[in-house]
Structures
1.
Amino acid sequence: MRDFAALYARLDQTTRTNAKVAALADYFRTAPDADKLWTVALFSGRRPRRTITATALRDWAAEKAGLPLWLFEESHGIVGDLSETISLILPPPTQDSDQPLSHWIARLRELSAMPEPERKAGILEAWDSLPGPERFLFTKLLTGSFRVGVSQTLMTKALAQATEQPEAEVAHRLMGNWTPETTTWEGLLHSGEARDDTARPYPFYLAYQLEDPADLGDAKDWFAERKWDGIRGQLILREGKHHLWSRGEDLITDRFPELARAIDWLPFGTVLDGEILAWDGERPMTFNALQPRIGRKTVPKSLLATAPVVLMAYDILEQDGHDIRLAPFAERRRRLEALLTDLPVEAPLRLSPPVRFDTVDDLRDERLRAREEGAEGLMLKRLASPYGNGRKKGDWWKWKVDPLIIDAVMIYAQSGSGRRANLFTDFTFAVKNGNELVPFTKAYSGLTDAEFRQITAWVNKHTVQKFGPVRQVEPAQVFEIGFEGIQASPRHKSGVALRFPRMLRWRKDKPVNEINTLDDLKELLAAHG
Amino acid sequence: MSVLTFTDRGIYCPAGDFYVDPWRPVPRALITHGHSDHARNGMGHYLSTDLAAPVMRHRLGDIDLEVVAYAETRQIGGARVSFHPAGHVPGSAQIRIEVGGEVWVVSGDYKVVDDGLSTPWEPVRCHAFISECTFGLPVFRWTPQDELREQINSWWAGNAADGRFSLLGAYSLGKAQRVMHLLDPATGPILTHGAAEAVTQVLRDQGLPLPPTIRVTPDLDLKAHAGAMVVATPSALHSTWARKFGPASTAVASGWMALRGIRRRRGTDRGFVMSDHADWPGLNQAIRETGAQRIFVTHGYTAAFRRWLEEQGYDAGIVSTDYAGEEVFSQDEAPKDIIDEDALDEAGE
């Protein structure tokens, strides 16, 4: 655990990418295999399941530290993180342990299976054997909230260095539904072909937001299509089975049973990249229609009827069992069209139609039409580009429509957690309705740390009333709220629900009586809902 | 009548007609230590320890200042007054005030661990104790001094081996010298920011065992000092001044560095958990050892700490003061209204 804590400290102490990669690569060269495997698992979101409740952990820690619960909670409020609070308030350890990470994970699972008194004794014993940073990490594992500022790309880079393999190869090996129980370090990173697991997806290629259309250069080099507002998915047909992966690398095959019929029309040895959309037979339904299907592992018939899905395919990565990601986009597109063009309407597959244009100015106009097409912008793909790995600048661009905007006043504030503990970061906003203020959305992001500090100081001085962690503040600060969509919602007092609301700007120049009204919101709802 | 009362100018003793660490001009002020939120300009007459006097003169200029040694008593009107070591910074004191047999103690700022430079804190028995509680929550538990020495020196040695400067942010009175005292001079030279150097020189002249330091001036040859330690004010770390050291490693020494969120927000490579205030065990130990039944808490997590003390059987109250505690952010990066506008450059130790 000491090596792992040292790695964590090195990662935590720097914001420089190269330093993080170096720290990881050093670790992957020297740590025991079982620890390395667990580290890759943890850093790629494969956390052990949480088996002990946060309440139990809090109670045990407070009891061990001899503190009343209210004081624990007070401290938790200041620290912002449960595991950190626990590791800080417990008395220093009285025992010494030099066990590796894999030992503590195994121990954690043993304890999970035990009855409560043994479990508690075991956790207290572990806490008493681990010094501060290790205790913090162990508790993070217990609470199942292990996160660290290491992206998949960064870890892939470090693993590529440590194992002397190309990054793309490593990225592909890390995909899929492996866990440290189902594989070994050797098996994951060194054995045979990366694709020997038939369900294993390819890494998704991601686009950057286009800021300046001049970056496109010659319009003839590009292909354009709509940017669909659904769930990115990779459909794999191999060896008599189909598998569907989300971009978050979740296997979601069973959640979208409609796509099982793809095997009726497509040969095995095919992998498609596309967007899962709720489809009304003619055009995509709103993201809202798709929403109820996201969280469900099994889908009731009624939902299959009200929100049937299709895969709007826009790329092909494997054909006849061959990886064709390195072929130019134009060639892949040609193959995709040949595969999908004459499918009957009952096939759950659509070809993402091209957007015709001659000049970059045509693209500008098409982009403005996105909302009426049920899309959220344009996708631009360089005709000569291979299907890449992760996010890279230059070959794929997304060009989203400008957000919808409402000027609103802040009425409630709540503090954040983790890095933002001690700062007010979660705000509720209201619009005017006559003399009344009507709350209509919350927003958390969009301000800089400096602005959050400034607004925090302001909230402290202008709190009208406290409701637990929530402060009601004087309605004085105006913000420009941007959002991607608007839906009618009877559950909200304002009658609307927004998609991706965030603070675009703090309008210090704008007086409260000039904010937007509930009628303005309703107009937006009528136009875009 | 109460030994001390709490007014909008500061803590007042009616029997002696004087104030302790007042934040508005008054005729007679007793000063616990030289930090700018405790020792301010504009008082008619000042009384402090002899050890605190040089820094106060350096900062406040030509003031009417009378000094006493630790434990020496003075009769001021109806009050008997003496100063006792607070262990906060060199020369810092708790002030004991006795009126008609009743003893109150004002802690000023204090810590109970020995930092190697300040006269170590001593408990003073009293009936009522006015205690700071900047870090009055159980999550604050300081790294032992030996471990700090090891952490800071190995960080420095690592940077020096790479030929990089080590920029360490520490308040210029107290923390800066405490750090210098811990440094291993074999690793390399110690450079200082002007603000830290000035106070260091005052304390060195006073006889404190401080290593030699070199002030960074525009004509100093930095290449010849590659790998040096640079002790600067926390606010200087993100200034243009800091850029002249190239790709240096940065660190801050502060009690707030105990919290990961704050450490990360502060944006330095390292955060050393080092404070000149008492941590949770320290506060509880100090209060216990005064033997006081009445406790007044000022600046810090006052509400929670008071409730805790009440539950431990004390008669506890909160006194609101203008003292700053230890600031999370240095002045130039904090939004203006977070900080006390009267506080000067060093506010907040």
2.
Amino acid sequence: MRSIFPVISVLLVIVGLWWVAVAPMNVRPALDMAERSGAEVIPEGPVARRDVSVWRLMLDNSDYVAVGYALDRPRLPTPTQVGQELWKTTGAMVMKGRAWSKRSLIYHGWITLQSTLWGFLLGTSLGIIGAVAIVYSRTAQLSLLPWAIISQTIPIVAIAPMIIVLSSQVGVEGRGLPKAIISAYLCYFPVLVGMVKGLKAPETSQLDLLKTYDATGVQSFLKLRLPASLPFLFTSLKVGIAAALVGTIVGELPTGAISGLGARILIGDQFGTPLAIWSALFTAAVLAGLLVTLIDLIQRLSLRRMGGQA
Amino acid sequence: MSALLIAIVFWVAAWGANIWLSNSRWSETIPVRIAVPVLFGVTLLVLWEGTVRSLGVSPVILPPPSMVGATFAASLEVLWIDFVQTVVKGAFRGFAIGAAAAFICAVLIDRSAFLTRGLLPIGNFFAALPIVGIAPIMVNWFGFDWQSKAAVVVVMVFFPILVNTVEGLRASDTLQRDLMRTYAASYGHTLLKLRLPAAMPFIFNGLKVATTLALIGAIVAEYFGSPTRGMGFRISTGVGSLSIDLVWAEIAVAAMVGTSIFGLMAWIERRVTFWHPSHRNR
């Protein structure tokens, strides 16, 4: 709790720097606009201004710097502009009862969240199954583990368009499944590594004790290895869900999707509406924060019930 | 059907061989540790080839590995141009700038307990965000050429390296720092002789995560506009023009680049952190 004050002040500084940066970033389009509406700008014409540094432009035309804070299509929007856009596409739409309209970020966030959760489910199960196989079979350990590491060094985005082409050819309708596969690909690895560590966490003496109780393999798995691995599992689940969200958004970005936060970014780029990109990015950030916090909460609750110190 | 049959026979045989090898008394030797995963990978390729051939899958959907290999060999020149554009110009430069900036920031932040407490949670949060989404913004700011790709890579690699370095700098314990004080070591001395070496395992963790991110960033940024070369450009146009074999060849390049950079990082790490418990007895 004692870090709340430093965190807030650092955040304030970041927002302040952002606010200040808007002026130099937007001064050129702002001057172009001022000139078109008949104002005197030094030097005249966008071509002549291209060779002048932004600082010089801001000094010479200090009256029009403010224009840069209210552009429709800014190169860098102000924090307030982003906030307003966010409110317009979320809260305001809920008030009007149109939360599920195609223009609402709640709708697009929900589409992204669905794929993320499916991918998370798929990736987590794959990771846990793989970890169990690796812990119990030496063959699996020798043959799977190196490939699991190699798979993470392959940039998945290179394969993302392929997965979508493949699944549409095979006859899978919609983009839900391919996006889920991509996010599962990104999220299984942390779970796998964490679970291998966790399942191997019990000491030999503990395993031996279970042997003296004549416990079967299944029993020692359920009563010792699995509970011992839970703290490791939750830590990697937090990494995994963030990775799953990245995977879904990457799956939506390059592939011409029409719904989902990644698609909003893509469409914002194609139609030249930076505010749409920025608000989609912030929604994705909020979503990531919520998901990680949720897992953190479940972790605290379940570890406390198990008698651990959470 | 015969191709599929051969593939399945090969699969079963390889599986048996792997089980035998990994349970044999040579299972700890280096040749076996390399042979088993290689056999596993080859089996996957053989299964892929056999399935695609026997089921008559159109090469437009999924080309067999042999065809990808032939395309790879035939278009080395194109692949090299794309490699230079995406990896050498975009990813490497971005990675170098981002890593250096993150490292310097981390050392500066570390001097103030206030900043460390404030920035660490924020950095952790940013490291978990889908930062690739800024790619269109960067292309808008820095133009189509490699500068915008490098910019995306800088932002993507910055936070993981920053967070790991800051955490690493706090890794040396009080006892060790007190010892440095009794030697009357200055801040710079303590940093160079004790805290940076102690931070190295953490820093390399961050660097290894960042290598993959750098490639992802450089490739995704090309989907939003690039000169008519580059791996991301070739993949997105290849999918559109149904030259899927070339796309798979690019994927193979990406896989090789990713794996070898990661391997290089791991190798440097072992040289630098030879003292760490996880590298002893090797």
